[in-house]
């Protein structure tokens, strides 16, 4: 039987995870085609800049929550059994101030009391009010994971290659042309579009519901211990507070910002100062007593553009100029923590198109 020739377009966490799941079926012959690959740092390529961790954003009962719920057990299994993947378990603290709650806040679901994921993550508990400062209305603590993206993305590449996936660098202008780039030299029967924000300008897609949400971070060598996030800050609705230490020496991420439709690739030095000051105020143990931001040992400053899509990620099938396409893009700031759930949904659509009826996680 002839193999199912498939091109996966994009090598961020969504593209790599989708290719990995598809490669578990030996009847699939897969080529990953991408302008950017793990190891690159480019403003067009969001995945390397992510924290990344498991802090659920999806509102209960939504597709986003379903995808995040489906992803947790896979990340847990990888963390337990594949230390080479660059993920570790971390204690996590989330603080909520009611004055922050609005639809524009990235952590509104994460920080609310009695969230849906309390029955998903281990060791979830609400902190008693006696342990909270006056400005905090409620808080929770649970076991999460933090991902070293510089290790995890290449690990996904390795898993794909072990299963026979071929990787090619290319820039394309139209989604249909990707079908001609399968490594066999034959036209692929299907293209999976995981191009993130690039789908806004990609011919045959041109998704005007996509826009960037700019995130700025500071990476430091200091280790504060538990991960932390708050529902907002006093510095404006588009500035946020989160702290997480990546596995295997990946440094501690101090964030950040949530700036909608902002394309600037350069770090704002004033924002960087506010990020560092907020982090120290929330986690004084980051530095020695009395040191302030001068006590932070900075590795680098970074900016990433989260590929946000109005109405949520696009995971659907269509036919474009005679080419079958399955889309999996537009995950905003929750690409890693929903990666296996979203990729699983995309794989089901691929199998529908190919008529196999098989989806494997």
TrEMBL record:
Give start and end of each FAD dependent oxidoreductase domain. 6-343
InterPro entries in the record: D-amino_acid_oxidase_CS, DAO, FAD-dep_OxRdtase
Q: What class of enzyme is it?
A: oxidoreductase
Example of a GO cellular component annotation carried by this entry: peroxisomal matrix
One GO MF annotation is: D-amino-acid oxidase activity
Superkingdom of the organism of origin: Eukaryota
Catalysed conversion reaction: a D-alpha-amino acid + O2 + H2O = a 2-oxocarboxylate + H2O2 + NH4(+)
Q: Which UniProt keywords apply?
A: FAD, Flavoprotein, Oxidoreductase, Peroxisome
Q: Where does FAD bind?
A: 195
Name one matching Pfam family: DAO
Q: Please tell me whether the keyword Flavoprotein is annotated for this protein.
A: yes
Q: Recorded E.C. number(s)?
A: 1.4.3.3
What cofactor(s) does the depicted protein rely on? FAD
Q: Which positions does UniProt annotate for D-dopa binding?
A: 333
From its record, what is one biological process in GO terms? Answer: D-amino acid catabolic process
Keyword Thylakoid annotated: no
Q: Where in the cell is it found?
A: Peroxisome matrix
Q: Which family does it belong to?
A: Belongs to the DAMOX/DASOX family.
- What's the protein here called? D-amino-acid oxidase
Species name: Aspergillus glaucus CBS 516.65
Q: What is the lineage of its organism?
A: Eukaryota, Fungi, Dikarya, Ascomycota, Pezizomycotina
